């Protein structure tokens, strides 16, 4: 079993900066990675703005005051609460470092293209205890301003890696003792039917097309979520959240029972 790496993650940056807005997302970013914030922008008449500005200044982050109309323009009319922040380019973790963390649960996305879905998945993954998120570099959404906003602060906490070839990345994960569990609309297995697993990597396909055939063949298990209503399938972000919860509960139960792996 590979030991946890004590060295800091090697990270590469995306090309674009982002605007994060709302008191909680900005406070989360300040708490997790103040160095990722270039400047906090506030409406000084806002109670939330004053609170965030105090925290930012205590951390040595620059604060700029503007009027409410400027914040409206900056955030595109979003629910900003008098607070926004310009972030530096998003820093991706190295895939090798994500694996070296030996987290019991990881998630990989195979072609999710909607940044809102990506942000929601990132948030769910962090809340539900995943240790990292893996994205293909091509034909998939990257961590953008829209994804960061949808993640509501989770992007400051969860390591996200981009890989050139997802199939090879899954093969490497297998070599590091991960079982690959594909979430597939046609999967006949259920999460409660899985054998005891020490570590698992959940693979979720893109909107509409699902997991690509080559990636599907690399999965150890194909698991479906039973559909009992009249609509044929779930939104990718919702399906991922359900899958992460169910798989996380399965892993937790196995560890609690002291299963032999």
How would you characterize this protein structure?
The longest helix is centred in the C-terminal third of the chain and has 21 residues, at 236-256. With 261 residues, this protein is α/β, with parallel strands linked by helices. Strand 7, helix 5 (115-127) and strand 8 (133-136) form a beta-alpha-beta unit. The chain has 9 helices and 12 strands. It has 2 domains: 17-87, 2-Layer Sandwich (60s Ribosomal Protein L30, Chain: A), CATH 3.30.1330.30; 93-256, SPOUT methyltransferase, trefoil knot domain (Alpha/beta knot), CATH 3.40.1280. The protein has helices at 23-32, 47-58, 68-75, 95-100, 115-127, 145-151, 166-175, 213-217, 236-256; strands at residues 11-13, 18-21, 37-42, 63-65, 83-87, 91-93, 105-110, 133-136, 160-163, 179-183, 200-205, 221-223. Helix 1 (23-32) packs parallel to helix 2.
Would you spell out the secondary-structure blueprint of this structure?
Layout: E1 11-13, E2 18-21, H1 23-32, E3 37-42, H2 47-58, E4 63-65, H3 68-75, E5 83-87, E6 91-93, H4 95-100, E7 105-110, H5 115-127, E8 133-136, H6 145-151, E9 160-163, H7 166-175, E10 179-183, E11 200-205, H8 213-217, E12 221-223, H9 236-256
Parallel strand pairs: 3-4, 7-8, 7-11, 8-9, 10-11, 10-12
Antiparallel strand pairs: 1-6, 2-5, 3-5
Helix pairs in contact: 1-2, 5-6, 5-9
């Amino acid at each position: 079993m590979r030991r946890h790496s004590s060295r800091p993650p090697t990270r590469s940056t995306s090309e674009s900066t982002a605007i994060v807005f709302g008191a909680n997302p900005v406070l989360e970013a300040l708490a997790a990675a103040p160095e990722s914030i270039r400047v906090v922008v506030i409406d000084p008449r806002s109670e939330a703005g004053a609170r965030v500005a105090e925290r930012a200044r205590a951390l040595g982050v620059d604060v700029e005051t503007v009027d409410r109309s400027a914040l409206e323009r900056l955030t595109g009319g979003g629910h900003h609460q008098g607070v926004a922040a310009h972030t530096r380019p998003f820093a991706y973790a190295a895939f090798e470092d994500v694996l070296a963390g030996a987290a019991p649960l990881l998630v990989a996305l195979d072609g999710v293209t909607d940044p809102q879905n990506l942000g929601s998945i990132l948030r769910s993954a962090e809340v539900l205890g995943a240790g990292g998120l893996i994205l293909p570099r091509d034909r998939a959404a990257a961590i953008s301003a829209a994804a960061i906003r949808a993640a509501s602060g989770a992007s400051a906490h969860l390591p996200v890696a981009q890989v050139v070839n997802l199939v090879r990345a899954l093969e490497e994960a297998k070599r590091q003792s991960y079982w690959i569990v594909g979430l597939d609309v046609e999967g006949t297995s259920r999460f409660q039917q899985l054998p005891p697993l020490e570590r698992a990597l959940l693979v979720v396909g893109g909107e509409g097309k699902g997991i690509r055939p080559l990636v599907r063949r690399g999965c150890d298990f194909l698991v479906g979520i039973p559909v009992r209503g009249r609509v044929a399938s779930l939104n990718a972000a919702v399906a991922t959240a359900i899958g992460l919860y169910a798989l996380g509960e399965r892993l937790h139960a196995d560890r609690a029972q002291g299963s032999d792996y």
